[in-house]
Write a structure and sequence with these properties.
Four copies of one chain form a homotetramer. Chain A is built from 15 helices and 15 strands. Chain A has 415 residues and is an alpha/beta fold. The first copy, chain A, folds into two domains: 300 residues, NAD(P)-binding Rossmann-like Domain (Rossmann fold, 3-Layer(aba) Sandwich); 102 residues, Dihydrodipicolinate Reductase, domain 2. Chain A is globular. At the A-D interface, loops of A face loops of D. Strand 14 of chain C pairs antiparallel with strand 14 of chain D.
């Protein structure tokens, strides 16, 4: 298998840098592949039957890529090398980063595009002033071509791990590829950077994942483009800490018929993600994706409130506190409180590395368009049918994903 | 459908009284059936396919009994009426209990059997002194016959909700029905009350569930008896608060490959259950059933410690605090802490009512012996094969149960 | 000692009704006086020395009133009897309320004044439309006179336990009694209900406590009036749950020199108080009083964030979650998390009953103006000197209060 | 001021090594002196009055030693240099330890004495086999003399930070100096290592602090010796995490008359301290000191349970979880839960450094015998009068300490 590439939108951010350090460390065998779904064991099909006693890693069954075969790159609005960024963020301990100094120093970002209208709490030092959005898109496409050529890559995966943009709904501009391209040329203010990156990636037939809540791959224009270029796409908003746990616990309440009256979720985080979310517009994007998960799992509408607080003393060590009020037999009230001391970028990195592997696989086997089975990795899964209700139940999502690749590998469905 | 009966070992205890109040209240439509799995919706099979949009309650699909068709009774070592017990325990609010005063006052216990050797922290006011264990068993059988006859019942379910007995392992006495019956006649000190009740129930072809950690239906002697009398049996130790949550969350860690380093679980409870568990022998029975669940779900052996503390100020409002230490990408440590303020008997009652319904169903369709598919309701599921490792994963258990009854109803397996 | 009266602004609310039920129950000996500072033991001075082994209740040392000698009344914008309100709120269990049915039914409110501009999330059914604020004030004064006369009362205490008003700063209107009375006559929109009630109470020489964050007794106009009528006044915003605990723990950090980096406080509450605070204007009043406490205790400025969330499933059972990030030797970080499951009105009632007793005492011994020593009971103590920094340290506050009344009783200061 | 020495019993343990690293770092100005009481500001007395606006550090008011003037040493049963121990324990981050490599490598331990009977869960590689306890004591005294001479020290402080010994009560052997010395000569099995170290220290006129729960300075024999040699002594069991917080919060409950029904405390810790406490004998020593604090603060006896659990995944990052059940007005129940994620040795180090400073001061001003005013630093303060009830209230303790040194410095008492 020849090499493949992975380009991050937001290369210098915590999620991208941690994912890259994780990938290199796993590739070199310096760390066990904790946090990666693709490393878990499942039962293969042998002689038409699930062989429960002969479990194998998903990675082997699907023949997924090794991380030593991945070349990393990306865009950022700050031009700095990844080594410095990783040291400064402090997410990964200094001695682990230092071990990879040469590798990290060799990774440099292409200059990113930026719009203050879409991310209010950041200031970009460097962006494509004076150029139309269409020219910006062309420039990004050229970056991809150069990257592919330089490193002689078969496939390049593009993952958006940039800051959350201000909330926007799909509008007429986004409704068809033609209108969208006209919009690009006219620098329509409804088109944000996340959409332009996605447009460039999909135009270049790069499998694309939207790890942020920003409006991007789900708009009709980009779905159309993905079909046209036969490119797999997936999104949106990586399911990491609080929502991961929420979608894993809520199914228990449903199955036991323990009736949830209210679910209060608060988060404190102090990294750049938190700073960006301190703007109400970006916050709305996040709250919308975080809030939708409960009703569909439960089948009813409990009182559900999600708070996100910028709290600088905590840095990347995000913390969530949840309170669940529910009722059992005779309507008697009970409570569960969950305190999750998590490392946001660490959890995200696991998802990102799984997505790189699985997107490469989907392309290799010829899939294109929205990869709904990858909804397992997202807070707000993009569905094949526009407007259809995604599945949020963690265990159902996993069942669907497993069923999907058992079908691809063995030609049969099992569970 | 004619009436069925439900007899509780430990009728005056919190679990039995709450289950009965719950059943009557649900039967009369005074309360929604929260906490009951058999009331949840699932997809039926229509034209050979799962009909996802036409979900129906399990209760309807299996044509399960209504609680107004159940007559309640049981044994206890204290002779008191259920109304007083329920008022005194304070588990169910006084006004709910008072609504059912006539029904509850009409339920009286048969005199129970007791052994100080098996439950050290209780003192029985009333037990079968001077009689051999065999005579005790015959007396219990006569109680069942009388109950059945008096109320003209088709089926009687027996559920052990008595206090946890001192830990014992299976011994020669328990190894065959013949040896066990000899032991009964010789009043072998290795035979405890839980076994005698189970023996009586199974002898009378009453479906039997062991809701406690005491040694009972799993011994070879009683399995043999269950086959002989064609009686379904299930156990053991109802899965309610902390363990319920643990077996619902642990699968998420496995699927995300988040490596658990340690899991510390502590419980405080102040009811009679807590008092009994304040004796090291009874505590061991409980700790053994609570401790086994993690390894089988995860496939490895994290540091796992379970504490149970008798804490009188809390009464029946059991509380659990869990701390989970785990590692993600790059081995970075994270923590989750869970605080569960639960009502022990309320959670138990849901399981008990589900078991009454499903045991009646198993008997109706002609099943007998260990009903492994009912492992969903137990901390330490009794398996068909002695010594085989039970499944503890909450979602796998539910899958197995659902698959089982889809097969029974539709003749096909789905998921 | 003849009878005294207690009039509540917001009589039908949870704090007033719980305070009254508490007072009657304690007066009748139906409940121990938990939650009351005035019932705690302290060392009296005997022969000029603190007699540590002869501790006596503060109540006895100060000869404080018994609650059976208090007649209750108040104003409300809803005309309902207190029995119904107490049953409906559910704060006090039904059987406790029912015991006092005749007493509670006999307590009726005077019609209250209301301004939608000051409390946006409530709608009053009944208010003094068409009347100037001055006329409203006169009407309130007449209510007080009538109440005093009807019940033949020596002293009447007025306590504001109404909903939190929209945040306002002191303005010219409030700067002198003359300007304020002009404002009343001109119905100046900067004068809110809380000020009018306070004006009426102080005009009638009724000791007045502001238990809410609304702008009232601290304005220069009302201080002037209090001096003129020789009336003791105290405020503001009763220190109950989260802030009580915060001001009791923060001193430990200071004394151990454990450096606080950040303190995050979130609250969920579902009662009418929560509904009112769901309006940003009222919320600001509350946040301002809650936020000021840390800096003065610590002597530096940590990152401090306070959230208040309206969360209906919880009713009056307010819950707080705090996270404290701090550093010890070598700057090593540690965390404390506190989860307070409190009953807001229960905690408030203890403070209110203490204030009724101590305000009666201050009047009896001839004190007037701002009673700074009562700052112990408030989140944002009103100081004698306008603009001076109040003391927030719980233990310092208690020391000051104790010192004050030892001086009043024994003529000497001790500690 | 000439140099002073500090000798640790258990030099290689986490508390001693962290204290030393802390002292050197503070001495060099590499870290702020967080966690030290002696660095907090208090009001001096100026012209016979407390000067509240001119606060000064306690350190300056008492002219306490600087840590650059302290020479460190001690005993240990393992012969290793402190640098290695500190790196291995991982309590202080590697880069901080490395900064002090030369200083730490130069600190070597004297060979310690050990008794398997007193510490069951450790195995000593090196101890004084074949020698009587008296000979062991003489050898320790010689170590002190050598240390003092080598470094030309005015005063040497000895602090016991060794592992917790098995619980013993005071017996006849401990009842007088004469009997104790006879016991030493006869190697009486009731005399443990902690007592022998204390005997050696006090014999050499070294101020001594017992930072562990082991039986030592409080026995009559050693009190007698301290009087004879005019040596100040203090103990026992450093008040650090859970108990520190407990004794700071409990006073609030007393002052608000919030009645505590129960207090449940659990701890998880994975360091050597935890391993030693996994032996029931050592555990009892700890539980006894931890359990006594509540009753004396509250004046009544709530249900109080303290658990300590050895939990290896956590290392030195001790964690405590507390649940407090209490009642307010009308007996209504409320709960507070506290989760303390602490670094045990970091909190201990602050106390140890304060004690070194304050013990040097007590000796300098001529104090001797039990220094009860230092009870502020201990879980189970040793009192001047044998058997008298110590004060546990954190704020009262601090008041007493402050009063004491204001009297020493200014000749007057204030508060």
């Amino acid at each position: 298998m020849s090499k493949i590439g992975a380009l991050f939108v937001g290369l210098n951010g915590g999620v991208a840098s941690t994912s890259i350090i994780g990938a290199i460390s796993i590739g070199k065998g310096l760390t066990p592949p904790y946090g990666l779904y693709t490393e878990t064991l499942i039962s293969p099909v042998i002689n038409g039957k699930l062989a429960r006693l002969n479990q194998q890693p998903i990675k082997e069954i699907l023949n997924l890529i090794n991380f030593q075969d991945v070349v990393f790159g990306g865009w950022d609005i700050e031009e700095r090398n990844l080594y410095e960024c990783a040291i400064e963020s402090g997410i990964v301990p200094k001695e682990m980063v230092t071990q990879l100094e040469p590798e990290l120093k060799s990774i440099r970002s292409f200059p990113g595009i930026f719009s203050k209208e879409f991310i209010k709490n950041l200031d970009a030092k460097d962006h494509a002033k004076g150029h139309s959005l269409y020219e910006q898109a062309q420039s990004l496409r050229q970056n991809i071509k150069d990257f592919k050529h330089t490193h002689n890559l078969q496939t390049v995966i593009v993952i958006n791990t940039a800051s959350t943009e201000v909330y926007h709904e799909t509008s007429t501009t986004h409704s068809s590829l033609e209108r969208f391209e006209t919009g690009l040329k006219e620098s329509d203010p409804l088109i944000g950077p996340a959409q332009i990156y996605a447009y460039a990636a999909i135009s270049e037939n790069c499998p694309y994942a939207n790890f942020t809540p920003s409006l991007a791959e789900e708009i009709p224009a980009l779905r159309e483009l993905a079909q046209k270029t036969k490119t797999p796409i997936a999104g949106k908003d990586g399911k990491t800490g609080q929502t991961l746990l929420k979608t894993a616990i809520a199914p228990m309440f449903r199955l036991k018929n323990l009736h949830i009256e209210g679910w209060f979720s608060t988060n404190i985080l102090g990294n750049k993600d938190g700073l960006v979310l301190d703007d109400p517009g970006s916050l709305k994007s996040k709250i919308v994706t975080k809030s939708s998960v409960l009703d569909s799992i439960l089948g009813y509408h409990p009182y559900h409130k999600v708070n996100i607080n910028y709290y600088p003393p905590r840095g990347d060590d995000k913390e969530a506190w949840d309170n669940i009020d529910f009722k059992g037999v005779l309507g008697m009230p009970m409570q569960i409180k969950i305190n999750f001391l998590c490392k946001d970028s660490i959890l995200a990195a696991g998802n990102v590395l799984d997505l790189i592997r699985l997107l490469e696989y989907t392309k290799r086997i010829g899939e294109s368009g929205v990869q709904e089975q990858l909804g397992f990795f997202f807070k707000c899964p993009t569905t094949v049918q526009i407007g259809s209700q995604p599945i949020h139940d963690f265990f159902k999502q996993e069942g669907i994903l497993k069923e999907w690749f058992r079908e691809k590998v063995y030609g049969v469905k099992y569970n």
